[in-house]
Amino acid sequence: MKVNIPWVVGLTIAALGAAGLGGQTARVPGSDADPASCAAGSGRITIATGNSTGVYYVMGGALARLVNGHTDVRAGAAETGASVQNIRQLVAGDYDVAFSLADAADAAVRGTSPFGEPQKIRTLGRIYPNYTQIVVRADSGIRTVADFKGKTISTGSPLSGTEAIATKLIDAAGLDELDVNRQRLDLTKTVDGMKDGSIDGLVWSGGLPTSALTDLYTTLGSEDLRMIDPTPLLPEMKKKSAVYDTATIPKATYDLPADVPTIAVPNVLLVRDDMPANLACALTTLVYDNRQALGAAHPAGKDIRVDEADRTAPIRLHPGSERALAGLTSR
């Protein structure tokens, strides 16, 4: 029976302590149920999302509501800087579930930059794709990523998946980081800078549509903005990570003059490798059984597919998720 429990956004570990966990050792979430089952058990979890105007934030809140409404686990969703920060704080124990771009997770399991060693993480499964969205002011003279030279470009929040992709794109275009006046801004500040002209362009990796970009296009209009096609850089990008692929941003997304080819990267839900298998199984089942609810929260959720959930290489599925997906795909 579904229980209507308010979703608490930005729930922090300190807040959990104030709720009654302070001063005592908290039980590992899900550890009170049979590990061979798909029962969630009980306890508290925190989900690391992303910028408040991004898709992770919306989807993370929707996931927290599903957990609260369908299990005895209490969940909260926290606003963060996104992928790289999420992984680091997931491993540190600050969060229990984390949204991440697959390229950042790939670097984490291999221990490559910006991670100094392999991280002990697993995934619950592949979810919807992120689209690389490069938007510039029409008066900036920018038509390719190589034209970023000498321009002021927002490359996303520090330690975000967007920043990682922007850095790789700049390198793939043959530019040095010092060639670009990089601004490490969250999406809200980025859009404000695009509106007032202090920023020439932005790189954003997110689902479609992203509300902050909808606001930008509504304010300035497509005649004052240009969306850049980065696909000529795909061969170089794939040398850095095999997870990149081509995709299309439909013109209806932001009332664009035409469809725009782009580079896409899958998103994954990450957990530590020591999460109880029963909880991982329960969470995985919850996500893929409730794709309609996630799609109602944001259109990106409609792109979550059970038949692609296990396509996460080189990020290994959690054993509990493997069990869940085997049952879901055999239905």
Automatic annotation (TrEMBL):
It comes from the Bacteria. InterPro entries: TRAP_TAXI (IPR011852). CDD domains: PBP2_TAXI_TRAP_like_1. Pfam families: NMT1_3. Gene3D superfamilies: Periplasmic binding protein-like II (3.40.190.10). NCBIfam families: TRAP_TAXI. This is Transporter.
